[in-house]
User: Which sequence fits this backbone?
C-alpha cells in the first residue's frame, strides 16, 4: 500500500470510529465490537454497497465519482477542510512539487509587506513549514531565529524540540495541533514528495508527542485561533493568530499574530517595538 492509500485508509477508519451509531439512527448494542460505525453502516448512509465502501477504505486504486465522494463525506460528517483532504487523497493526479515550479523563492513583495507591519509578529513559512522570513517583532516575542541553523528552522520541529516554546505557549498543545493540522494539508497535496515521509518518520521516533498527535489526523487549511504566550520580560500576551496565503505565491503562508486587548497585549507590544 502506497503512502496515499495508507493515509486514505487511516483517515476514513478514524472518521468512521468517531461517529456514534445512535447519532445517525443505528442502535448501539452492547455486542458491538467496533468503535463508532461499522463499514456496512457507512455504506448504508452513503447509499453504496458494503464491498464498494470497503474497497475505498482499504485504499484500493478505484475511481470514485463525485456523487459517491459527496455521499461518503456526508455520512462521515466531514468538515470543509476534511472534504478537501479526502478529495486530495482520492484524486489520481498529484500536484506539482514546488521544485517543479517557479514558486520556490520567497517573492520580494512578501518581504516588503512583512517589513512594513511592525505592530504584529509575523512568521513566513513554506509548504514544509520551514520558516523562511519573519519581522523584528516576531523575533522579540518568540525566539531568536537567527541563532537557529537554517536547515533546522522548521516550525513543527521547533515546537517539539525547543523547550522555550513549551514555556512560552500557555496553550502549547492547542498551538501544536493547529500547526500540525495545517502541515498535514500540505503533506497530502504533495504526498509523492519523499521529504514528508522522511520528516514524519524522524519526528515520530524522536518525539512521542508528535507521533501521538499525528495519529489523530486533524486537518486545517488555515489557522484562526487565540494564542496565549508568557513572555519573559512583559508577562502574558494574547494574540489572534491567522494564517494567510498569497495567490501570487501559493507555496508560502504567513502566520500573523494580532495583539488583542486581553492582558493589555496591545500596550505591551507597543513597548517592545518602540
Assistant:
Amino acid at each position: 500500500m502506497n503512502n496515499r492509500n495508507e493515509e486514505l485508509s487511516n483517515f476514513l477508519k478514524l472518521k468512521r470510529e468517531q461517529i456514534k451509531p445512535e447519532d445517525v439512527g443505528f442502535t448501539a448494542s452492547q455486542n458491538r465490537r467496533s468503535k463508532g460505525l461499522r463499514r456496512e453502516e457507512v455504506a448504508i448512509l452513503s447509499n453504496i454497497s458494503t464491498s464498494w465502501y470497503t474497497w475505498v477504505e482499504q485504499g484500493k486504486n478505484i475511481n470514485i465519482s463525485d456523487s459517491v465522494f459527496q455521499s461518503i463525506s456526508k455520512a462521515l460528517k466531514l468538515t470543509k477542510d476534511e472534504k478537501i483532504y479526502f478529495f486530495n487523497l482520492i484524486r489520481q493526479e498529484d500536484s506539482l512539487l514546488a521544485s517543479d515550479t517557479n514558486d520556490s523563492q520567497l517573492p520580494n513583495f512578501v518581504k516588503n509587506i512583512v517589513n512594513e507591519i511592525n505592530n504584529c509578529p509575523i512568521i513566513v513559512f513554506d509548504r514544509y513549514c520551514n520558516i523562511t522570513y519573519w519581522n523584528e517583532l516576531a523575533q522579540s516575542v518568540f525566539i531568536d531565529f537567527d541563532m537557529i541553523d537554517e536547515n533546522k528552522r522548521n516550525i513543527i520541529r521547533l515546537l517539539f524540540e525547543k523547550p522555550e516554546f513549551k514555556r512560552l505557549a500557555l496553550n502549547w498543545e492547542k498551538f501544536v495541533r493547529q500547526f500540525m493540522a495545517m502541515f498535514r494539508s500540505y503533506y497530502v497535496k504533495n504526498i509523492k514528495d519523499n521529504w514528508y515521509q522522511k520528516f514524519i518518520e524522524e519526528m515520530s521516533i524522536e518525539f512521542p508527542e508528535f507521533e501521538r498527535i499525528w495519529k489523530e489526523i486533524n486537518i486545517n487549511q488555515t489557522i484562526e485561533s487565540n494564542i496565549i504566550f508568557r513572555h519573559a520580560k512583559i508577562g502574558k500576551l494574547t494574540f489572534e493568530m491567522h494564517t494567510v496565503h498569497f495567490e501570487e505565491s501559493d507555496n508560502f503562508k504567513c502566520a500573523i499574530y494580532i495583539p488583542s486587548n486581553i492582558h493589555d497585549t496591545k500596550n505591551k507590544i507597543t513597548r517592545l517595538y518602540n
Q: What stands out?
A: The two ends are 56 Å apart (CA to CA). The CA atoms of residues 93 and 128 lie 20 Å apart.
